Amino acid sequence: MTTVVFMGTPQFAVPILQGIIDHGYQVLAVVTQPDRVVGRKKKLQMSPVKQAALTNGITVLQPEKISGSTAMQQITMMAPDLIITAAYGQFLPTALLNSAKIAAINVHGSLLPKYRGGAPIQYAIKNNDDVTGITIMYMAKKMDAGDIITQASLPILLTDDAGSVFEKLSYLGRDLLLKTLPQIIDGTAPRLPQDESQVTFAYNIKPEEEQIDINCSARQISGLVRALRPQPGAYCDFAGKRTKLWDITVLDQETDEQPGVVVAKTKKTLVIAAGKHTTFAINCLQPAGKAKQPIQAYLNGLGRNINIGDKVITNDN
């Protein structure tokens, strides 16, 4: 029986782990990030991968840093046939990669060499790409630079956000991995070096990058809103308050109004000017300290005094 050490953290990795288990591979251990305090109540929470591992009765290792850790020593002593990673969240030392008898492979959420890094799905949506995908690759010391084994693509719909694409790619990644594993194990899997001239990076999005630039086009703003949904959300200075825009619709209507100005308002709609003469309608928003609310509820409450011609969105912090 082929033995595996699996390394992953978010929900994206759970279907991949479960697929490996269900197809009869022997998972010796699961490595995931340490439990973290989350939410206002500061509740200690396990990663989704840890929860899945415990449900399946698998040993869980949670080093704060894998390099030089006791967990790394344990994995090396296990000498698994395969090390499989999917959104684990840490660099792996060469000595750890070399401890796999057959190979150390990664399930990456982009069509490499495009979008190496920790936020490939968010970048694809933020940049309004039409397609994304999964890459199964051999792991190397350099981030996401290993040889490509196989890939599968997935269209990005205008209705998609990071949450929906994460879910779709997790199942696509599971199916592609399970299809590819027999070739990896018997040594017939291809190795395609990445074209370094085509490399782009998708580093984890910083808090300051979550702010909407109202001078961008409505399509660019929509890309950011969808890329940061369901979390952490894209925000702006709206009517003097830090406000998250959770859902907007890009409109065909053009305008000569300055970005951030209200160009249309009814009891149920609010249309805002963006950069490049574009406009968008706000469908759902969340002022600081308030719950998410549809635009109609907002206009009946906090937004009842907003009028056409008012500049409600600025680039102020």
UniProtKB/TrEMBL annotation:
<dbReference type="GO" id="GO:0004479">
    <property type="term" value="F:methionyl-tRNA formyltransferase activity"/>
</dbReference>
<dbReference type="InterPro" id="IPR044135">
    <property type="entry name" value="Met-tRNA-FMT_C"/>
</dbReference>
<dbReference type="InterPro" id="IPR005793">
    <property type="entry name" value="Formyl_trans_C"/>
</dbReference>
<feature type="binding site">
    <location>
        <begin position="110"/>
        <end position="113"/>
    </location>
    <ligand>
        <name>(6S)-5,6,7,8-tetrahydrofolate</name>
    </ligand>
</feature>
<comment type="similarity">
    <text>Belongs to the Fmt family.</text>
</comment>
<dbReference type="InterPro" id="IPR011034">
    <property type="entry name" value="Formyl_transferase-like_C_sf"/>
</dbReference>
<dbReference type="InterPro" id="IPR041711">
    <property type="entry name" value="Met-tRNA-FMT_N"/>
</dbReference>
<dbReference type="GO" id="GO:0005829">
    <property type="term" value="C:cytosol"/>
</dbReference>
<feature type="domain" description="Formyl transferase C-terminal">
    <location>
        <begin position="204"/>
        <end position="302"/>
    </location>
</feature>
<comment type="function">
    <text>Attaches a formyl group to the free amino group of methionyl-tRNA(fMet). The formyl group appears to play a dual role in the initiator identity of N-formylmethionyl-tRNA by promoting its recognition by IF2 and preventing the misappropriation of this tRNA by the elongation apparatus.</text>
</comment>
<dbReference type="InterPro" id="IPR036477">
    <property type="entry name" value="Formyl_transf_N_sf"/>
</dbReference>
<protein>
    <recommendedName>
        <fullName>Methionyl-tRNA formyltransferase</fullName>
        <ecNumber>2.1.2.9</ecNumber>
    </recommendedName>
</protein>
<keyword id="KW-0808">Transferase</keyword>
<dbReference type="InterPro" id="IPR002376">
    <property type="entry name" value="Formyl_transf_N"/>
</dbReference>
<dbReference type="Pfam" id="PF02911">
    <property type="entry name" value="Formyl_trans_C"/>
</dbReference>
<keyword id="KW-0648">Protein biosynthesis</keyword>
<dbReference type="Pfam" id="PF00551">
    <property type="entry name" value="Formyl_trans_N"/>
</dbReference>
<feature type="domain" description="Formyl transferase N-terminal">
    <location>
        <begin position="4"/>
        <end position="179"/>
    </location>
</feature>
<dbReference type="InterPro" id="IPR001555">
    <property type="entry name" value="GART_AS"/>
</dbReference>
<dbReference type="InterPro" id="IPR005794">
    <property type="entry name" value="Fmt"/>
</dbReference>
